Amino acid sequence: MRLLHSGRLLIPIVTARDAQHHALRAIALHGLAHPATHALLALAATTAARAWDAGHRVAALHPPPRPLEHS
User: Fold this and answer.
1) Which domain holds residue 26?
2) Which of 15, 17, 48, 63 is the most buried (most CB within 10 A)?
């Protein structure tokens, strides 16, 4: 997980996204009840909250879907 780079914290949204990806991999590998999965999910939630507090919004990474065009 890339929490530090050259001794400095990375951009909070990048850290949050990395933590989420690691948590999803743990779920796929160990299942939801595994202690490592619990720890990574807690880390993902914490980093997401810090990113939100730093001003990063979910819409910045996940824009709303465009409506389907019917012909």
Assistant:
1) 11-56
2) 15
